[in-house]
Every structure is written in C-alpha cells, then in structure tokens.
Amino acid sequence: MTPGAPAIPFRAGAPSSNETPAMTDQAIAKPAVRTRVSASRLGALSHHAAGWLLAAPLALVLAVFLVLPIVMIVIVSFWGATEFSIYPDFQWDNYRFLFGSDVTYRVFLNTFKYAAITWAFTLLIGFTVAYFLAFHVRTLGWQVALFLLCTIPFWTSNIIRMISWIPFLGRNGLANSTLISWGVIDEPLEWLLFSDFSVILAFVHLYTLFMVVPIFNTMMRIDRSLIEAASDAGASGWQTLWHVVIPLTKPGIMIGTIFVVTLVMGDFITVRFMSGSQSANVGRLISNDIGLLQYPSASATAVILLITVLMVIGILLRFVDIRKEL
Amino acid sequence: MTTISKVRYSRRAMLKAGGAAVAASALPAPMVWGQETRNITLRQFGTGVSNLNEVATKVKEDLGFTLEMTALDSDSVTQRAATQPDSFDIADIEYWICKKVWPTGNLQAMDTSKIANYDKIVGIFRSGKLTPESVIAQGTAPHTVGFVDGPGGTSFADAETGWMTLIPTIYNADTLGIRPDLIGRPISNWSELLNPEFKGKASILDISSIGIMDMAMVVESMGEYTYPDKGNMTPEEIDLTIGIFTEAKQAGQFRAFWKTFDESVNLMASGEVVIQSMWSPAITAVRSRGIPCVYQPLEEGYRSWGGGIGLSASLSGMELDAAYEYINWYLSGWVGGFLMRQGYYSAVPETSKAFMSENEWGYWFEGKEATDVITSPFGDPLAQAGETRDGGSFYDRMGAVACWNAVMDENQYMVRKWNEFIAA
What we know:
By secondary structure, chain A is mostly helical. Chain A has 15 helices and 2 strands. Chain B folds into 3 domains: 1-37; 41-172 and 304-352, 3-Layer(aba) Sandwich (D-Maltodextrin-Binding Protein, domain 2), CATH 3.40.190.10; 174-298 and 392-423, D-Maltodextrin-Binding Protein, domain 2 (3-Layer(aba) Sandwich), CATH 3.40.190.10.
C-alpha cells in the first residue's frame, strides 16, 4: 500500500467525511509531530482509519463466526479422545488413522463421484433452463414470473423435498407401479431407491436452482447486440452458443459450480436417507464420528474435507475470473 | 422451607403407606407443596421409546410440575449425557449407555430407601435373575451396572447396595420382525436374516452397539462361530462378525439400514423389507396400519435391553425431591400400564396391573388369548379376540434372553469397523 494513498478507495467520501474531525483528533492526539501533517495526508489518514472502522464489523463477525470455529476445529483435530470425553493433546493419531484406512480413500472417491455426476447434470439442466429464460422468453414480466416459478419448490424444507422421493421411488411406489401398469417392466426396479441413482437424483433435484440463478444472471447481462453481431457475421445458432454465449456465461457457470460442488461435498443427510444408509460420503464419516463422541477424529476429517474443497475451488478459479461478475 | 419439607414428609409417608398420589392430593396439606412444585420444571431426555408427551401431560396432572421431554437417538443420548451435564435433570438412558456415561460423573446415585416400590422391582434389575433358577445372559446385564457403593461411587458394585445408578423403567426382549404375508413360511432362526432368499429385502439397524449384537446372534445361529461373550468381543471376533456382514452387504443382501424408529416402520410397512431387526412398538405401528407383521420368537433367544432413569449430578433441593417424586410416580403403575399396552414391560409389573384391563393384562403379560380387541394406548386396534402375543408370556420372553445390549472393552475398534461396514 503506498503511503498517502487512500487505504480503501471510497466511491463516495460521504459516509466518512461526517466522522472525520472527531476521528482525526483521536488519531493525532498523542504524537505531537503529527500536528504538522499536511491536509492531504490528514485526509488520507482519516480515510485509512475510517476504512478500518467500516470493515471492522464484518471482520469481527467473520472472525468470531468463521475463523474462530475453523481454528477450533483444527486445534481439536490434534486432540485425543476416550469413549466419552476428549482431552487436549498434540498428536497425529487422528490423521494417521484417517490416511491409514482405505475406507477414507474409498469414501473420498465416492464423494467426488457424487459431486462430479451431480455437477454435470445440474449444469446441463441449469444452463438449458437459464438459456430458455434469458433468450427465448421475450418479456421481462414473463421472465420474472417463470423464474419465480423455479423457486417455488424452495418454499418447503430441503429434507421434505428429499424424503418425498422415497415413497415415489419405492418397490411399491408410484414410479414402479406406473411402469408396471404400462407394461414397460414386469418386476419392480430395485435400483430406483436406496442406490446411487436415488442419491444423485435427489442431489440434482435439490441443487439445480443453484446453477440456474447465477447462469441466468450472467446471461441477462450479455449485450444483445453481440448476439446480433454474431448472427450478422453469419454464425449459426450453435456457433453463437459456443463462441459467444458460453464464454460470456463462464463466470455464472463457475459460481453455480462452486455452489453445487461445495453443497454436495459437504452433504451427509441426503446420502444417508436416499442410500438407505448404505453408502457413505465424507459428511457421513464426520457425522458418525460425532455421534460416537469422537470429536477429534471428526475434526481431522473435517479439516481434510475443508482443504480438499478449497483446493477444488482454487482449481476452478484458475479457469475463470469470477471477479468480473461481482 | 421448614413447612415445605414437613409437608413433603407427610406426603412421602402417605406414598410409603401405599396411599399413592390419589390419596395424597386429596389431603389439603400437600396442596401447599403442590403450589410450590408448580414452578418446578424437570428436563428429561432420552430415546423415543419412553419420551412420550402423554407421560409429561400426566405428570403435570398428577404431580403438578412440568416435565420437558426431548427424544433423541441412542448415539445422541449418550453424547448428551456425557458432554452436556447441565442440559438435563433426568436422563432416560439404557443400561449399556450408563456403563459409558457413569464414569463422567454427570449422574448421581439414587437412595433406594426413597423408592417406595423398590422391593417390587423385577429381579433382573436387582440380583440379575428373573427367577431364582434363571441363568444370567451375556452382555451388559442391567444389574451389573445398576449399583454403586455409595452416593459418590464411581465404580459399579456386584450386588445390591442401596445406591442405584438408574431406576429401571422399561425393558423388552428384541428379535427380528418379519412380514409373514410376504415370506409365506415359518421363520425360526436368526440366521434367516442373511438367507439369500431375502436378498435385497433385509435390513439391520445402523446403531453400532446394538447392531453388532444382532450380528452376533446371526453369526452364532449360522454356526460360523460361538462367542464366549457376545457382549465383549475380541478384535478378531469383531473382524469375523463384521466380515460376514460386509460380504452379505456387498452381495446386495440389505435393502437399507435404519437408524430411527420411524425408518424401521416405513421400511417394513412399504414392503421394502420383509425381515429386519426391529423394536416392539415398531411392530405395533406397522400392525396398526392393518399390515401383518410378526415379532418372531427365534430358537436362539432374544437380544434384550433395559432403560432407566438417571438423575443429573447437579440436581439438588426441591428439584431433587421432585425427581424422586417423579420416579415413585413412574413406578406406581400408570406409566407401566401405558408402556405395557405398547408391548414393553414395566419394572414393577404388578403395579401396572391396576391400570390395565384383565384382557390387556392377560394378552400382554400372561401371553393368554385376547378375549376382546386389544388396542394401543392411542386407540388403534392391534389384535383381535383369540390372538396371542408373539413370543408368549413375560416369563417366556424375558426368560429366553440370550444377550443384553452391551458396550465392549474394544468399543472404539468395533465402531471403526462398523464405519467401514457402512462405507463398504
């Protein structure tokens, strides 16, 4: 940071200027030398202080509710546990056990599998829906109305939307009895429920909207004259889509991807219910450990999951500069 | 304070004289105490089986104080009892949980001389023997963790000492639940759970400490291995047991695993599963939907469990008195009758008799044919005249217990293996 330059570039100086006198007094009260500071430098200083003060509430909230808990989790991950208590310690046992068990690798692999497949489906569906809303629906009124329609399922709880699949997909459920009555199948399909299929179905159902919203948002910002220009230049519909729309939608896709990937990787309840407790992902490992009072081991798993997810997001951000979007 | 304690004494005396709550509340004096207790709130938590709102309502009616109920699954119950001693006054936990939680010092021992019906409590919870000839089953039998040496005792005593860790409330003998209409042949062994005939239609509960016992019953029944003590396996025995089930899981034997009562009911009622480990009221719940479901007695015997009420170490003064009052009320019959009409047993069956009709007592306790329709406490018909209870009488069922729910020395190892089983 260059000295003298405003610490934070205020778009409007208004909020800080009211506070300036009092704050400057405080800031320069003690060191006498400071009294000779030039006016511009004074202004910069007050900007500096005001900037910190303005950032303070959010920083404090983040520190207390985000940084501190994570630090706690990291600390506890080195603790030891007996059957019913945990004790402070510094040991690598939890990590050693985690990395020493092939279950961990299988479960992480499974988690990635769920995330990747869910991502592919939500992207495909989300992009199509957003494209339809943004380019095919002409009036803003209809766009808003149809968009709100997409959000209606979100009026009920996540869990209810998920659990309602169970009777639908069951052995004697609606799906199977319909297929049987149509003569498509003779015997109920067992894999409809309590399988990877049902887990991914529930994930896609739950999280597609997280893809639709950011993609729709970016699409709405695309300058329509670009599409016209592409068309004038003789581009076909697919060419326009591939060379104009998709590149310009990338930030939205990326934001949606981050939402979906983090949600799926952190989930445990969907996997538990939809697989009938038969499959595991990392979230379930953690929840099982918590249930059995093995907090240190749960923390260690959580730390590794956090690092993994951050790495995934880090890689994703290499592809696209989402700051353009924000 | 003095008046209050005097009044309380008179009421206690009434209780001991066998006058019970009805007579006590008829006297004017206890009303003073009643006014005081109105402000008392006792926070109880436990598994869903006995944490029933009906009990809280009745407590308010009979005793005047408020009982706040929280129902959790077994794991959460253990966790809460062990880690959040200030979050509850009364812990309604199972005996194997007690073995885990007692060393934390979060519970206080109870003076049995203050328990009016102590002498009538079933032998299982005192000497360990149902009848003098009974053999004590494997696992964490309730009497082994039922007593400590004194009010501050930290280790369990071998015999009755007058200081109880948990006051037994309910218990039962568990077995496999089946759908006779979908199976269509008699089932008489635990090994049927892994019979390929039921591929994709079996289930087991995903609560490690209980599930491992069901597994052990199956493994023994298959003739694969005979455990010296199912309730305390060695690491090799754990590997063997879970190995057999992992193989079955990978071969697609199981439709799902269940963790909560509701899940087990839905699996069975929807026909997703035709044979699974199950709890008695879950059978009742399936039947009350008009779907046939049998709590199948098996040759190898039952896996049994018992629950009891423990007092938080931080309870004292009037709250502690209220808690004793509550325990005495609990054993005085109404709750027992309420629970027995769902298929559980009460710790003091004879007091419950007064709260059940002759038909109900005959059906649930004596294993006799029902002379009239048997309904649940919620009014759903469970059995028609002429039907008998699965497994027969109290002594037939509780006398055939093969093991008790337990917590092993190698518990942590077992839990890790269990996690692998779920992830496999």
